[in-house]
Amino acid sequence: MRKAGVYVRISEDREGAGLGVKRQEADCRALAAQVGWGVADVYVDNDLSAYSGKPRPAYRRLLEDLGAGRIDAVLAWHADRLHRAPAELEEFIRICDSRGVEVRTVKAGELDLGTASGRMVARILGDVARHESEHKSERIRRKHLELAEAGKVVGGGTRPFGFEADRLTVRESEAELIREAARRVLAGDSLRGICADWNRRAVVTSTGGPWRQQVLRRLLMSGRIAGWREHRGVLVAPAVWPAIVDRATVDRLRARLGDPSRRTAGPEARRYLLSGGLLRCGPCGRPLRARPRVDHMRRYVCPSGPGYGGCGGIAIVAEPLEDLVVERVLDVLDSPVVEAQAQRLVEGTADVVVETLGADVRALEELALDYYRDRLISRDEYLVARASLEGRIESARRQLAESTGGRVLESVRGVARTRWPEVGFDQRRAILAAMIESITIGAGRRGFNRFDPGRLAIAWRA
Question: Which pTM value belongs to this model?
Answer without folding.
Answer: 0.48
